[in-house]
What we know:
Elements: H1 2-11, E1 22-28, E2 31-36, H2 37-84
Antiparallel strand pairs: 1-2
Amino acid sequence: VLLSFFLFNFLFEQPPRPSTEFVYVDVGFGFHVQYTLDEAIHVCKSKEDHLSKRAETLSKKIAETSAMAKVVRDALGQLQDTLLGPV
């Protein structure tokens, strides 16, 4: 059994594994950039920080827009009550 194991390994050599020294990172618009692992981690952290700040900004804008819509809706309701009377 041991001899057949050695013969099997000798006859069927393992294929070479691809190098993991570099990775490809999708940077948008269908482009991929080759980075080392350390560079890729730095790029991903930078992108995460940027997206977090963008999410905070958009959340504030959404809250402002919702508040403005509520003010307009209330004003239209008051105007309707004034012109047509309570419904």
